Amino acid sequence: MAADSADKDEGWGAAIRDGISAAWPICAGYIAIGLAFGAIARNTGLRPLEIGLMSLIVYAGSAQFIATAMLGAGAGLLSIVLTTFSINLRHVLMSSSLSLHLRNLRGGWLTIFAYGVTDESFALNMGRFREGNWEWRRALVVNHVTNLTWIVSTVTGSIGGQYIPTGAYGMDYALVAMFISLLVFQLRGLVHIIVALSSGVLAVIISLWIPGNGHILIASFLAASAGLYLQRKRVPPAGKGEIP
Amino acid sequence: MNTETITVIVAMGIVTYIPRWLPLFFLSRRRLPHWLVLWLDFIPAAILSALVLPAIVTAGTPRQLEWNRLELWVTIPTLIFALHTRSLAGTVMFGMALYWLAPAFSP
Questions:
Q1: Is B42 an interface residue toward A (CB < 8 Å)?
Q2: Ranges under pLDDT 70 in chain A
């Protein structure tokens, strides 16, 4: 288990430096999406302060987009909250997976860490943990530097969104490029490749059926389970202790 | 500020935070069965693929398959670049540059 690497005894200075320099692809993507979100949310009637508060308290891009549209359409509290919950339920899988690398971290730190778990910070931190040379402080810095970027970008977009050119420098593509690169890091054998392919294809099929984000959770759950089944068929479970 | 909006935002925050917090808090201090560790090991690859593929081949609401998208055509060389270099920073810059410049070269 790579879990013990969480206790590398280094200070916050190095963690902040490494965390920030790792987080830039996420920040580039968040600036692009955040400016757009701020401008759109302003158009549906939210004030800059409310937009900033939403980015601070909720901190989940797609849920914020959908909730804002629902608010603008006059939807009720319950339907917005249930939609948000279903969109963000996928984080259960990410936090479960991250827990492998945050063994025995104090509860208070976990509570602060959990707040910053997003698709992007999860992907980046898991890639870094997998490579080694990464620990909870650096991961925590990634979570919160990206959150700060998100808050500032959404508020900026809400104040002056119409004056900011969107799509500059291909920033809209930054997150997809980052996901592709991190996906490549995760393909460590035939079973992982099969899991990734089947998860992607399943996600496309399910996404055509159901609106929102449920396809990510359902496809990942099914594909990882298929991977576990395949792995066990290839390597009988008895006596095999460590993951590769 | 509008109290109704604030109530919605706080409620959204609570239901978003719980799924982020529960597994971290409870799983990180338990001995996990071997099958669960193996299963969780597949989760990053599964999630990343489930995030990327729909984003590049579907569009619209309700979503529909759409093959002729800039995202898809930029993703193919970006994926090849990532496989060859295994560099995160390089791949992100390569992908951004292609996405930015490609429209200028398309007929």
A1: yes
A2: 1-10, 161-162, 164-167, 236-244
Q: What sign has the CA pseudo-torsion B32, B36, B37, B41?
A: negative
Q: Could you tell me the residue ranges of all domains in chain A? A: 2-186, 188-244
B89 and B64, same structural domain? yes
For B:46-75, CB contacts with A below 8 A are: 46-58, 61-65, 71, 74-75
Question: Are A208 and B58 an interchain contact pair (Cβ–Cβ within 8 Å)?
Answer: yes
pLDDT tens digits for range B9-61: 999 999 999 999 999 999 998 889 999 999 999 999 999 999 999 999 999 88
CA B40/CA A1 separation, integer angstroms: 12
Q: Does B86 touch chain A (CB under 8 A)?
A: yes
Domain count of chain B? 2
B41 and chain A: CB distance < 8 Å anywhere? yes
Beta-carbon separation of B9 and A53 below 8 A: yes
Domain ranges, residue B23: 1-30
Contact assignment for B5 to A204 by CB distance below 8 Å: no
Reported ipTM? 0.91
Q: Which residue has the tokens 């996906």?
A: A183
* Cis status, amide bond into B62, omega within 30 of 0: yes
C-beta of residue B57 within 8 angstroms of C-beta of residue A130 = no
